[in-house]
Design a protein that fits this description.
Blueprint: E1 5-13, H1 20-29, E2 35-36, E3 49-50, H2 64-69, H3 72-87, E4 101-106, H4 112-125, H5 134-138, H6 142-151, E5 157-158, H7 166-180, E6 185-192, H8 197-205, E7 235-243, H9 244-249, E8 256-265, H10 278-291, E9 300-302, H11 309-323, E10 331-333, H12 336-339, H13 346-360, E11 362-363, E12 379-380, E13 386-387, E14 392-399, E15 403-411
Parallel strand pairs: 4-5, 4-6, 9-10, 9-14, 10-12
Antiparallel strand pairs: 1-7, 1-8, 2-3, 6-7, 8-15, 11-13, 14-15
Helix pairs in contact: 3-6, 7-13, 10-11
């Protein structure tokens, strides 16, 4: 399979841990990363919970002056990329041809915290108080740019901004770049750091967020009959994708293969999913066609399911349509029960968890799934992990604007 594309490195920073090992263990342990927000957070907000990264974030050796300039989305991306590249054996300066290494890191919102900080400075101190670094540090493409700058990668440098499908699209389009031969290696993924009163107020006023302030760890409950909205989360995840011939030539460990990808649009509503799930159905079928696989070849689905009443039901409807009778024996889980919803970084983190499930023979559970909604019966991996011999897994990502992405991974 010299023409294939493989995964050779993983890195992440999540509400469950500041690296891959701790995040994966927390997922398997059924822990939740959702907590109460600090007491000094906006007290008038009806939502007082979120899934934050609480541990130390290590973006690498950077001068303190530079660190102070960087938006949190950039810091998280640098840390995730650093781990992924080291895992792939591509630490700084080790790539045979840095001009053939690219970066694609998506973000749904970008440097919103830097935007808000400088707006406050403008209001309180006038134009001269606005940082000269405000514009570049706010740009959504700057995490990808800074990863390339710090590692000297001169290949394609991209940022996909497609709401909650951003990082899944970054992975899929990186697959295409490698298949075309435009690069040998792509560091692909997503980053998000948007836990602030403005973003929470916007989502809350849309009735999109859970308001289980009294039980944060129980708030994110995909597919559960009592679900009442998603939980906003932050973090970053990066996967190193590589042409298989290139990976084999340098003796890299193959962690999985990226077999198929598709992207579609609902073309229906800015926020609500298509109740007929037409775009999601075409997307999953497109990924299967891209990989040359029948629906029965899929052994597990990491669902997008965010814990919203409408979204989970539509995705389940799509799964029933795409997989038919096979859905009865197709394990499904949503790791957002544990991580919350990382928006633009969600797809990459879930793809990373899919790779680990293939490697370890373990399917991650949906936590807080106490009463599965009978409107859409599925083979839920609920509460605890499940041993598996899965060979092929599907990762779904859907987002505002009616954007859809589906990725298929195969055991390495």
């Amino acid at each position: 399979m010299d023409g294939g594309v493989v995964v050779t490195g993983l890195g992440c920073v999540s509400p469950l841990g500041t690296d891959v090992r701790s995040t994966w263990q927390a997922v398997l342990d059924g822990r939740s990363g959702v907590t109460r927000l600090p007491e000094d957070f906006e007290p008038r907000s009806p939502v007082q919970i979120a899934a934050r990264v609480t541990g130390p974030v290590d973006p690498g050796e950077l001068p303190p002056k530079e660190l102070r300039r960087l938006d949190r989305t950039i810091l998280l991306a640098l840390a995730a990329a650093r781990e992924a590249l080291a895992d792939a054996g591509l630490a700084a300066g080790s790539a045979s041809d840095p001009a053939r290494v690219g970066v694609a890191i998506g973000s749904g919102i970008g440097g919103v915290e830097t935007l808000l900080e400088n707006h406050r400075a403008l209001l309180t101190g006038g134009p001269r108080r606005v940082s000269p670094f405000f514009v570049p540090m706010t740009l959504a493409n700057m995490p990808a740019g800074l990863v390339a700058i710090h590692h000297g990668f001169g290949g394609p440098n991209l940022c996909h901004v497609t709401a909650c499908a951003s990082s899944a699209h970054a992975l899929g389009e990186s697959l295409r770049i490698l298949q075309r031969g435009d690069a040998d290696v792509m560091a692909a993924g997503g980053t998000e750091a948007a836990i602030n009163s403005l973003v929470l107020a916007g989502f809350s006023n849309m009735q999109a967020l859970s308001r289980r302030n009294d039980a944060p760890e129980r708030a994110s409950r995909p597919f559960d009959r009592a679900r009442d909205g998603f939980v906003l989360a932050e973090g970053a995840a990066v996967l190193v994708l590589e042409r298989e011939a290139h990976a084999r030539a340098r003796g890299a460990r193959v962690r999985a293969r990226l077999l198929g990808y598709a992207a579609t649009a609902d073309a229906r509503h800015v926020a609500a999913p298509d109740p007929e799930a037409a775009g999601a159905i075409r997307c999953m079928r497109g990924a299967l066609a891209d990989a040359g696989l029948a629906p029965e070849a899929v052994d597990y689905v990491n669902a997008h399911a965010t814990s919203t009443p409408a979204g989970d039901e539509v995705e389940a409807k799509a799964l029933h349509t795409v997989f038919g009778a096979h859905v009865e024996r197709l394990p499904v889980s949503s790791t957002k029960g544990a991580t919350g919803h990382l928006l633009g970084a969600a797809g990459a983190l879930e793809a990373l968890l899919c790779v680990l499930s293939l490697e370890t023979g373990t399917l991650p559970p949906t936590i807080n799934l106490d009463d599965p909604d009978p409107a859409f019966p599925l083979d839920h991996v609920a509460g605890k992990p499940r041993a598996t011999a899965a060979k092929v897994v599907l990762s779904n990502s859907f987002g505002f604007g009616g954007v859809n992405a589906a990725l298929l991974f195969e055991r390495g």
